[in-house]
Amino acid sequence: MKKELIVMAILAAGTLAANAKGNDPVVMTINGQPVPRSEFEYFYNKNNDQDVVEQKSFDEYVDLFVNYKLKVQEALRSEERRV
To answer: Residue 45 to residues 28, 74, 80: CA-CA distances in angstroms?
Structure first.
């Protein structure tokens, strides 16, 4: 349990430091679109109330996030075709 909290604290500190320096590393690419760490962390924290991050729940969230981003990309493409 303490290990998970330490990992989250390190990730949060790394994000703050990266944003302060103007660096926002890409954590994944979905359909050719880069996803910066700040965007992924924003959505993760917004949608996850747990104080402790379990690897299984984190992996499941990554899958949900990827599916969400793919649906958004498809909606944008559909909208462009209609215009």
So the answer is: 17, 24, 31
